[in-house]
Design brief:
Shape: globular
Structural class: alpha/beta
Bound molecules: pyridoxal-5'-phosphate
CATH superfamily: Alanine racemase
Low-confidence stretches: 1-7
Radius of gyration: 18 Å
CATH class: Alpha Beta
InterPro entries: Ala_racemase_N (IPR001608), PLP-binding_barrel (IPR029066), PyrdxlP_homeostasis (IPR011078)
Distance between the termini: 11 Å
Family: Belongs to the pyridoxal phosphate-binding protein YggS/PROSC family.
Number of strands: 8
Cofactor: pyridoxal 5'-phosphate
Function: Pyridoxal 5'-phosphate (PLP)-binding protein, which is involved in PLP homeostasis.
Strand content: 15-25%
Order of helices and strands: HEHEHEHEHEHEHEHEH
Number of domains: 1
Strand order of the largest sheet: 7-6-5-4-3-2-1-8
GO molecular function: pyridoxal phosphate binding
Number of helices: 9
CATH topology: TIM Barrel
Helix content: 40-55%
Amino acid sequence: MTDRHDTPGPDGGPLDRRAELAANLATVEERIASACAAAGRDRDEVTLIVVTKTYPASDVRLLHELGVRNVAENRDQDAAPKAAACADLDLSWHFVGQLQTNKVRSVAGYADVVQSIDRMRLVTALSTAAVRAGRELGCLIQVALDADAGARGERGGVAPDGIEQLAAAVESAPGLRLGGLMTVAPLAGPYAGRQRAAFERLLEFSSGLRVGHPAANMVSAGMSADLEEAVAAGATHVRVGTAVLGVRPRLG
Ligand SMILES: *Cc1c(COP(=O)(O)O)cnc(C)c1O
C-alpha cells in the first residue's frame, strides 16, 4: 500500500479522496446506465459491487457515504479486519477470491455472499461454519469457462460440467443459499479476448441452472475493463475495482 491513499486533503481531511471516489463512481455509474440502455435493460437489473481489495477501510467508509452498499474482497487476511472496522455500516460483503478451507470459518463470520464456490469440500466446510456462526451465506458457483471437463480453472472455478453437482450440494446444505453463478473472463483458451462470448456462455449455463433452481438468478460477471460486455450479455452483478478506486498498488 502506498501512502497515496492516506494523503490528506487541503483541510487535512480525506476530502480529495472522497472527491476522487465520487467522480470515479459517477463515471462507472454512467457506464452501467449506458450499457443497460444499449441492451434494453432497466438500470436496476444490474447491481454494482465495488471490489475494495488492497484499499483501506477508510475508503470503504467513503464509498458507503457515497451510496455503495455492496463491496467485495478476495483475501481473508485483508477482508476480515476491514469488515470488522466497518461492522457499523449496512454493507453486503462479497468474497470473490479462491478460498482455502482453513479460512472458511473466518469468512463465514462477515461474508454475506461467497462467489467462489468451486468444489464440494468448500460447500461442506462453509455449511458447517455458517451453521456454527448462526448465519446464512449466499453462494455463487464460480464457473471456469476454459477448464476441461472435471477440472478446475487456474484462477479458481469449476468446469461447466461440474455446476449442477455443486448447485445441488449448496441447495441441500444447511446455512447456505444458492444464489447463482459467477465467472471471470478467461485470459487463455477459446474465450481469450472474447468477453462478450464468454459472458453469453455463462448466461446459457445460468438459464440451465434456473430450470432446476429458479431462485438462483444471480449472474456475477464483468470487471472494470469489460462491464459493458457483461451487462450486454445479461449479468445481474458487476464487480468493479480499479475503475472506482484506482490502479491497485500491489497485485491482488
Ligand atoms: C479484483 C477482482 C475484480 C475487480 O477487477 P478490476 O479489474 O479491478 O475491476 C473482480 N472480480 C474478481 C474476482 C477480482 O478478483
